[in-house]
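INTERNAL AUDIT FORM
Audit reference: QA-55
Scope: verify that the stored structure record matches its stored sequence.
Auditor: D.O.
Record contents follow.
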Amino acid sequence: MAYTTLPTHRTVQVISATVVLDVMELPFITSPSGVTAQVYAPYTAWLTEGADPWISPVATAIEDLIAGGQAVGGTFTQDVDPTSGLLIDYVTFTVAYTPTDGRGTFTTTADVPVTALGGGAGIGGLVIGLTPQQIVGNAYNQLVATAGL
């Protein structure tokens, strides 16, 4: 298991102006990188399946991105979708590039929707055109380009 669960609670998730789901909020910390994130499981599914089917794919995807070397850490964040007005859950990754000339490390952040991690795990998912690797890779490439100026 590449994560440790944190205290959970039952809540609701607003999917649209007319749809609200009964869910379990499942926060966790990945291992070994220590990224804190959370996912939501439908309450009835959580009762029968537990937390692992919801957390494990996301935790694995987070750790895989960090193991790729472009992201060095991350944390759970939320923002408002300008189209729907609903909250979107993200893992905001810290992306780093260190040139070999000794100038130090260039850093930025890359917001990856939680629903895009782990094969679309989550409820009500956000459809995006880029993969998590592409989102982080684009940020990394901008750092490399900036360092090259």
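Auditor finding: record pair retrieved intact. The longest helix spans residues 52-67.
Action required: none
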